[in-house]
């Protein structure tokens, strides 16, 4: 029986220390619109498969097993009291690809990925348990933070356009679909237009899914993929193949050197990840004045514990190139917009967030959906990276506080793309010392970006 919440209170829960356990049909109402949307949006989760097949040499069904495991752990956020829709650490994907590519394909590269994800997980858990997350990030000079985030954006674009990259494989489909995606997501013209047309507003609320549908049409017409062969039944993720060939159960535990060499890239990943934590808080708080009937407790430390735990466990059960992040911003915004419509539309934010992720998990097991999307997963990934590249460069520039910061950031970003995170940090540290001296940690604000603060 559904436990009732009085206006102005938190949704009922079972308290276990920092965590607040909420179960469907008991603590929150199942939200069918969000569940159905999740069924469609499992396409984005499936886009991780080409990454693993190319970087680690995984067969499709083994990579699908990783995606399924990751999907199950997505549920832990709302079940343990974090009112968000979690996702990948998308800006960091190119950094992780570049780092792992320095190791030979096979057990050596698997060891590198396992060590990286385990280090990130334990680092995040430690910061969450001690409450030091904000302190650690504040110690990174703005110029270096700006360069790391910009570098992640540059790397995302480079992965798509490099020789032999996905653009060379699907030039027409990527060109048309990325143009449509940028118009729908970022264009002021479309943003104004959709307010007058409910159909366009519905399309916009679906996020990147309409662009995937467009790719399904264009790619076969352009002769860049074969038409999908729809199969019926349920998908069969290969967990046995995963655990015997791509985890510590099959290839052994990574050497200590892997953990040491991973740390600079882990720190770079954490910098962009922390931005998602801050964004989670701001997105949830957007609805506070419109939904006074529900008190939402967003705790960054609890979030760190959950996504840190996800990464630590996935590093053992199914190392994942996309990593386990705290937020899927696009879909969190879509759910929040429906939540703002009132209690009749969505009883609690946990119902919307949870139902969406139950939907994506269902979709991963439906073979018609998986088989239909399989031919365009590489295109879907390229579109995701290009959109992320645009966002990362824009956000990275705004992290700078002066023209000097921006100059340092550009060199940090270039060094990161060319030589890796350790070089990026090294270049940034040397330049901040030479240019700022005793103002190393703060730099100087010359008012160049004053507009962003007003």
Q: Radius of gyration in whole Å, from Cα?
A: 22 Å
Largest sheet: number of strands, sense, barrel closure: 2 strands, antiparallel
Beta-strand share of residues: under 5%
**Sheet/helix structural class:** mainly alpha
Shape: globular
In order across it, which strands form the biggest sheet?
1-2
Unreliable parts: none
Order of helices and strands: EEHHHHHHHHHHHHHHHHHHHHHHHH
Helical stretch tally = 24
Count of strand segments: 2
Helix content: 55-70%
> What number of structural domains do the residues give?
1
Kindly, what is the distance between the CA atoms of the first and last residues, rounded to a whole number of angstroms?
Answer: 48 Å
Mean pLDDT: 89
Task: Give a written overview of the molecule.
The structure is a single chain. The protein is mainly alpha-helical. It has one domain (about 30-170, about 225-400). The chain has 24 helices and two strands. It has helices at about 30-45, 50-55, 60-75, 75-80, 95-100, 105-130, 135-140, 140-160, 165-170, 170-185, 190-195, 200-205, 210-220, 240-245, 250, 255-285, 300-315, 330-340, 350-365, 365-375, 375-400, 405-420, 420-435, 450-454; strands spanning about 15, 20. Strands 1-2 form a two-stranded antiparallel sheet. β1 and β2 form a beta hairpin. α2 packs across α3 (about 60-75) and α3 (about 60-75) packs antiparallel against α19 (about 350-365).
Task: Summarize the helices and strands and which ones pair or pack.
Layout: E1 14-16, E2 19-21, H1 32-46, H2 49-55, H3 60-74, H4 76-79, H5 93-100, H6 107-130, H7 133-138, H8 142-161, H9 166-169, H10 171-186, H11 188-194, H12 198-205, H13 209-221, H14 239-245, H15 248-251, H16 256-285, H17 300-317, H18 329-339, H19 349-364, H20 367-373, H21 377-399, H22 403-419, H23 421-436, H24 450-453
Antiparallel strand pairs: 1-2
Helix pairs in contact: 1-19, 2-3, 3-14, 3-19, 6-16, 6-17, 8-21, 8-22, 8-23, 10-11, 10-13, 10-21, 16-18, 22-23
């Amino acid at each position: 029986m559904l436990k009732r919440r009085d206006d102005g209170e938190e949704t009922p829960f079972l308290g276990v220390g920092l965590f607040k356990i909420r179960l469907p049909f008991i603590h929150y109402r199942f939200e069918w619109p969000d569940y159905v949307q999740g069924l469609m949006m499992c396409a984005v989760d499936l886009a991780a498969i080409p990454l693993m097949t190319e970087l680690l040499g995984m067969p499709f069904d083994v990579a699908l097993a990783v995606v399924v495991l990751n999907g199950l752990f997505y549920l832990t956020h709302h079940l343990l009291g974090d009112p968000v829709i979690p996702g990948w650490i998308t800006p960091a994907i190119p950094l992780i690809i570049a780092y792992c590519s320095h190791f030979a394909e096979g057990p050596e590269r698997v060891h590198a990925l396992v060590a990286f994800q385990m280090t990130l997980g334990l680092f995040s858990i430690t910061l969450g348990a001690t409450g030091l997350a904000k302190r650690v990030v504040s110690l990174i000079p703005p110029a270096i933070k700006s360069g790391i985030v910009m570098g992640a954006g540059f790397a995302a674009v480079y992965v798509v356009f490099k020789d032999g990259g996905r653009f060379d494989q699907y030039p027409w489909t990527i060109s048309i679909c990325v143009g449509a995606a940028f118009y729908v997501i970022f264009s002021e013209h479309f943003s104004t237009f959709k307010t007058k047309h409910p159909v366009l507003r519905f399309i916009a609320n679906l996020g990147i899914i309409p662009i995937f549908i467009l790719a399904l049409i264009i790619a076969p017409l352009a002769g860049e993929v074969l038409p999908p062969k729809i199969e019926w039944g349920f998908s069969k993720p290969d967990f046995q193949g995963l655990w015997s060939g791509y985890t510590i159960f099959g290839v052994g535990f990574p050497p200590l050197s892997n953990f040491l060499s991973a740390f600079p890239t882990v720190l770079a990943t954490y910098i962009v990840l922390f931005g998602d934590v801050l964004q989670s808080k701001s997105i949830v708080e957007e609805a506070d004045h419109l939904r006074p009937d529900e008190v939402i407790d967003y705790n960054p430390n609890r979030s760190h514990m959950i996504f840190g735990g996800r990464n630590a466990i996935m590093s053992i059960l199914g190392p994942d190139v996309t990593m386990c992040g705290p937020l899927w911003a696009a879909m969190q915004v879509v759910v929040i917009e429906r939540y703002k419509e009132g209690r009749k539309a969505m009883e609690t934010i946990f119902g919307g967030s949870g139902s969406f992720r139950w939907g994506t998990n269902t979709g991963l097991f439906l073979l018609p959906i998986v088989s239909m999307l399989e031919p365009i997963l590489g295109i879907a990934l390229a579109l995701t990276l290009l959109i992320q590249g645009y966002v990362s460069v824009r956000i990275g520039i705004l992290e700078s506080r002066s023209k000097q910061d921006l100059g340092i950031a550009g060199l940090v970003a270039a060094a990161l793309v060319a030589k890796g995170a350790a070089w990026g940090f090294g270049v940034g540290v040397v330049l901040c010392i030479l240019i700022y001296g005793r103002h190393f940690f703060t730099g100087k604000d010359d008012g160049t970006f004053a507009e962003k603060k007003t």
